Amino acid sequence: MKKKFLFLVCLLLVPALFLMSACEFIFSDDFLFGDDKPQDDPADPPIIEEEEKIKVSAPYILSLGDFIIWEQCSNADEYLVYCDEELVMTTEDTRADVEDLSADHVYTVVARNIEHDVLSEESNEAVVSKNSNFTDSEILDLSGQNIGSIYTIRSSIRKVICKAETPQVYNTTFILDRRKNDIIFELENVTFQSKDEAVISTYDGTYSRARENWNLILNITGECSIQGIPQTEVPQKPANNSEKKGGNGLAGTNGIIAPTVVIRGDGYLDIIGGDGGQGGQGADSTFFAAKFYGDGGNGGDGGNGIQTQYFVLEMDSYGTTTVKAGNGGKKGSPGVNGSIITGPWSTSNYDDHYGLDGKNGVSIRGEIITLGGALYNE
Questions:
Q1: Distance CA 187, CA 225 (A)
Q2: Which of 14, 33, 154, 229 gives 20 to 30 Å between its CA and that of 217?
Q3: Burial classification of residue 60, based on how many CB atoms lie within 10 Å of its CB (0-12 exposed, 13-18 middle, 19 or more buried)
C-alpha cells in the first residue's frame, strides 16, 4: 500500500516541477526580449553624494604699528590683503608690511583655498595709524618742561616728544586717555619714574586689544628708562592690645600698561617694575592685658615691567631693551607678645603669625614678538 502511495506522489510532483520551470523561462528577459534585452549603460556615472563644500575660516587681524598680523586660518593657502577696500597684495604669510604711513588706513584680509577657489568671510577692520605727517595739534612736546606728578595725554595727541642732551628725570605718571589710534613717544636721554600704579598706563589700567585696539610706540635714542620707584613706606602699626593685624605693604609700580607696546630706535631702554612694600607689624600685647598680639601684614607684590597683550621689539641692530620685574615686599612680623596672661599660650606658635612675602612681579606679561634689536628679559 505504501509503495502505491509513494508512486502516486512522484507522479504528481514531476509535472508540477516541470510546469514551474517552464513559467520561469517564459517570463525571463531572454524569452520576452531575445537580443533586445536591456543592458546597463556603461556611460552612466555611478551615483555619488555631493561632496560637502570646503569652508575657510575668516582671519582676525591686528595692527602692530607698521605691519598687520593674523593667525593661520583653517583650509587657507593664501591671503588677500585690502587697504581701504582695494586689493594691495596676496601672500602666503600671516603678516603684511604697510608701506604708506603718512595717513590712517583701514586694512582687511580674506583667506582663500586655492584648490577649491573658496574664500573666507572678510576679516575685522584694523586701523593702521600714520607715523608721519602730523599736524601741530597732534604733537605734544614736553622736552624740558615741569609737568607735575600726573599728566593725562588726550586722545587727539598722536606724538609725544621728550628729549634732552643730558639725562633728565620726570617724576610723572602718564595716563593715556581712551583712544582709537596709535601714540608715539620719541624719547632721548630721559627717565620716567613714578610710585603710582604704573609709569605709563591706559586711563583705567586695562590692556585688552579687544577693548583698546591701538599701539604704544616708543622710539628710543640715547639712554632712557621707565621705572617704578620702590615702595619704602611701611604701614602704621596698630594700637597696643587691639589684636589687629599689621597693614599690607603697597604694591610695586608697573612700568607700562598698554594693549600693545612697540619698541624702536637705536638707543638703550630700561623698563623696570617697582619693588613692593614691606608688610606692617601687628599690634603688641602689654603686660597685664588679656589680649593677644596681632598678626603681621603681607608684603606688597612686585610691579610688572610691562603688562600688555603684545610686546614687539623692532629696534635697529644696536638697540637694546632690558625689562625687569619688581621684587615682592617682605612679610610683616607679629606684634610683641608682652602679656603675662595670654603670652604663655601663644609663645609656641609665634612664628605662625608672620604675614606672607609679596609675590615677585613679571618682567613682560604678554606675547613677545622679536623682530630686531637685543632683548634682556629679567
A1: 9
A2: 229
A3: middle
Per-residue pLDDT tens digits for 234-267 = 999 999 999 999 999 999 999 999 999 999 999 9
Q: Residue type for 63, please? A: S
SS3 category, 138: helix
Residue 193 phi, psi (nearest 5): -145, 150
CA dist list (Å): 10 to 1, 3, 15, 20, 145: 15, 11, 9, 16, 128
Going by C-alpha positions, the residue among 255, 248, 221 that lies closest to residue 233 is: 248
Q: Provide the CATH topology of domain 62-128.
A: Immunoglobulin-like (2.60.40)
Residue 327: exposure state from Cβ atoms within 10 A (0-12, 13-18, ≥19): buried
Residue 36, classed as helix, strand or coil, is helix
Q: What is the mean pLDDT of the chain?
A: 89
Dihedral angle sign, alpha carbons of residues 27, 33, 35, 39: negative
Q: Where are the domains of the chain?
A: 62-128, 136-377
> What pLDDT is attached to residue 347?
87
Contact 197, 231 (CB under 8 A): no
Q: d(Cα 172, Cα 190) in Å, to the nearest integer?
A: 12
Cell of 132: 608721519
Residue 110 exposed, middle or buried by CB count within 10 Å (0-12, 13-18, 19+): buried
